[in-house]
């Protein structure tokens, strides 16, 4: 290479004192010698590799969560709708897998950049202390890329040389899962050593982040998918590494609602990132993709009733029995008053009919209002006036109010909003929304963060490990640590055996949803049947508002709920079999290896 092109990082923002690192004027072309001999250029080369960390929204805006029991994708609006549909139909093949994810090519691209870094800095004259810190970051990044590859495909080729992306073929074969996992551990150990003593900065790879990746890798190695004989030594290794992260000085942030808004809450966040207008989720950001369609937004992803049922009552009881349709008689739950006395996280993380009011900033329609997902319980012919709603005009923005809500299908049918997608469950996710920002703006710096690792995950990981080791008392202690966060303060878990496993997995789903966990958890547990292929998808099939009980000034009358199957959802087919716990390797990658790469079982021609 005669010239080496550098794209300066815009995606990662660290603490305020480090923002000047990202304000270097871009150069069209920087000589290779300058890139690898100048510490500022080299650090920016390393920062660029951070972009190889797969965001939680890929594939599409909902990530893999729309392929689980806790969320459903709106295929009308989803970038990867075809790939998600094919996966859920059991039809993912080596020829169409890239419609769902192109992670093989993406991760190996960044692995190549890491390999170039190590080759070009060998014998470098850069100050050893500075260079060691950067080496630690790159060892972590290369480990992270391989972790993503092996949890997707199993064993993959371990490549530590900088093949050119223009090479027509690579005569490489796959390493075993165990060899790849050990490589991740070795890279993490190198990162831990090299980053020891490096001052932490918000958003930057640290020694503790490397410890977290090592612990996560060991948990995956111990899990049923990768540990068919249930080797206890693997669980013990995972326990030691996870406990080291727990003892590294992090604490649970008091308020769970603040975790996903800037600034990064570094007391709990082991590794995370913030955004600029140019680096956030594609298009307009989380707001446009997660706000309900009645807010003139895309609403790509919605919670299922199955997930809603995972949120316990504030007394610690589930609203439904395990079948999901029979009300738990000990819970105090009322299907016609379902949103009272729930886990505090329910109100923070879910928009349900009547939730709010929330701030909607959208030009002339800026207002505060409820999530008005309801139809008129007693409509006049063709929903014509006069209306019973005692509030004819919204007191905040002077909009006309109707007996049907502004998030209802009728509101769309009457031409009052441009969107109302065919797939609706009656709920939408609230966890990552920024109600201080506009619905859609290319220029606004939204305040959301993405957390890749945080202490609550490691508390839950440790609980799972202790259950596997037969230490239920210790497992309950760590589950309850998460539940006793001051802003949550749920009753302690006291269950055992299979009930403890259910409580743990539900707690994990509630606490970590939208954090790129649930899909991979179901795979490593070999728990896909009934969770990934859950069928039918249930939700609120009808919500109606009876205004006869409302007086002037009341925002709501009496809601009536009907629960059932959402027929518009793309069907999910029975789990195809154990081979489906790994993705097929793209056929083009096998051909580029001169057929040296062996396809995963179940996907061969």
| Number of helical stretches of at least 4 residues | 17
Indicate the radius of gyration in whole angstroms. Answer: 25 Å
What is the H/E string? Answer: EEHHEHHHHHHEHEHHEEEEHEEHHHHEEH
Number of strands: 13
Termini distance? 39 Å
Largest sheet data:
3 strands, mixed
Please list the strands of the largest sheet in the order they lie side by side.
Answer: 9-12-13
Shape verdict: globular
Overall average pLDDT: 90
In terms of structural class, how would the helical and strand content be classed? alpha+beta
Percent helix: 25-40%
Strand content: 5-15%
Instruction: State the assembly state of the protein chains.
Output: single chain
Outline the low-pLDDT stretches: 1-28
How would you summarize what this structure contains?
32% of the residues lie in helices and 8% in strands. The protein is α+β, with helices and mostly antiparallel strands.
Report on the structure:
Belongs to the SusD family. Helix content is 32%, strand content 8%. The protein contains 17 helices and 13 strands. Strands 9-12-13 form a three-stranded mixed β-sheet, with no helix packed on it. Helix 7 runs antiparallel to helix 8 and helix 8 packs antiparallel against helix 13. The longest helix is centred in the N-terminal third of the chain and has 26 residues. The N terminus is likely disordered.
């Amino acid at each position: 290479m005669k010239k080496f092109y550098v794209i300066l990082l815009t995606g990662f923002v660290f603490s305020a004192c480090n923002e000047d690192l990202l304000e270097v004027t871009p150069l069209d072309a920087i000589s290779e010698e300058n890139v690898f001999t100048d510490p500022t250029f080299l650090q920016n080369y390393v920062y660029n590799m951070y972009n190889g960390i797969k965001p939680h929204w890929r594939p599409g805006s909902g990530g893999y969560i729309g392929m689980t029991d806790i969320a459903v994708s709106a295929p009308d609006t989803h970038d990867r709708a075809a790939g998600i549909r094919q996966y859920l139909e059991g039809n993912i093949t080596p020829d169409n897998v890239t419609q769902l994810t192109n992670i093989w090519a993406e991760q190996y691209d960044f692995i190549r950049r890491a390999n170039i870094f190590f080759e070009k800095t060998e014998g470098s004259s850069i100050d050893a202390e500075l260079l060691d810190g950067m080496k630690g970051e790159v060892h972590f990044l290369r480990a992270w890329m391989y972790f993503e590859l092996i949890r997707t495909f199993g064993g993959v080729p371990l490549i530590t040389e900088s093949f050119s992306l223009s090479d027509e073929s690579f005569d490489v074969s796959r390493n075993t899962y165990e060899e790849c996992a050990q490589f991740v551990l070795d890279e993490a150990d190198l990162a831990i050593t090299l980053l020891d003593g490096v001052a932490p900065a918000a958003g930057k790879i640290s020694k503790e982040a490397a410890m977290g990746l090592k612990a996560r890798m060991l948990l995956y190695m111990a899990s049923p998918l990768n540990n068919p004989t249930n080797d206890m030594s693997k669980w013990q290794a995972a326990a030691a590494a996870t406990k080291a992260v727990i003892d590294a000085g992090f604490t649970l942030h008091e308020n769970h609602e603040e975790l996903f808004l800037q600034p990064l809450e570094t007391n709990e966040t082991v590794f995370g990132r913030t955004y600029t207008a140019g680096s956030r989720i594609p298009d307009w950001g989380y707001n446009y993709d997660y706000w309900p369609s009645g807010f003139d937004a895309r609403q790509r992803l919605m919670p299922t009733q199955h997930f809603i049922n995972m949120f316990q009552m504030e007394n610690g009881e589930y609203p439904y029995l395990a079948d999901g349709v029979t009300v738990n008689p000990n819970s105090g739950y009322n299907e016609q008053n379902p949103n009272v006395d729930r886990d505090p996280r329910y109100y923070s993380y879910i928009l349900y009919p009547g939730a709010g009011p929330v701030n909607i900033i959208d030009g002339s329609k800026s207002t505060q209002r409820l999530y008005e997902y309801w139809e008129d319980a007693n409509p006049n012919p063709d929903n014509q006036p006069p209306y019973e709603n005692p509030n004819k005009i919204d007191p905040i923005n002077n909009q006309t109010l109707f007996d049907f809500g502004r998030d209802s299908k009728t509101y769309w049918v009457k031409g009052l909003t441009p969107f109302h997608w065919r797939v609706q469950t009656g709920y939408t996710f609230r966890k990552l929304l920024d109600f201080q920002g506009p619905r859609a703006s290319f220029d606004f710096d939204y305040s959301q963060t993405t957390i890749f690792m945080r202490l609550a995950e490691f508390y839950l990981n440790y609980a799972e490990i202790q259950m596997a080791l037969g230490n239920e008392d210790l497992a309950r202690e760590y589950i309850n640590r998460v539940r006793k966060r001051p802003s949550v303060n749920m009753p302690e878990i006291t269950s055992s055996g299979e009930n403890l496993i259910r409580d743990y997995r539900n707690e994990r789903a509630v606490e970590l949803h939208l954090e790129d966990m649930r899909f991979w958890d179901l795979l490593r547990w070999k728990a896909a049947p009934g969770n990934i292929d859950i069928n039918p998808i249930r939700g609120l099939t009808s919500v109606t508002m009876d205004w006869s009980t409302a007086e002037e000034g009341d925002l709501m009358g009496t809601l009536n709920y009907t629960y059932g199957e959402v027929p518009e959802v793309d069907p999910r087919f029975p789990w195809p079999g154990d081979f489906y716990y790994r993705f097929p390797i793209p056929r083009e990658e096998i051909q580029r290896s001169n057929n040296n790469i062996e396809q995963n079982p179940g996907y061969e021609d």
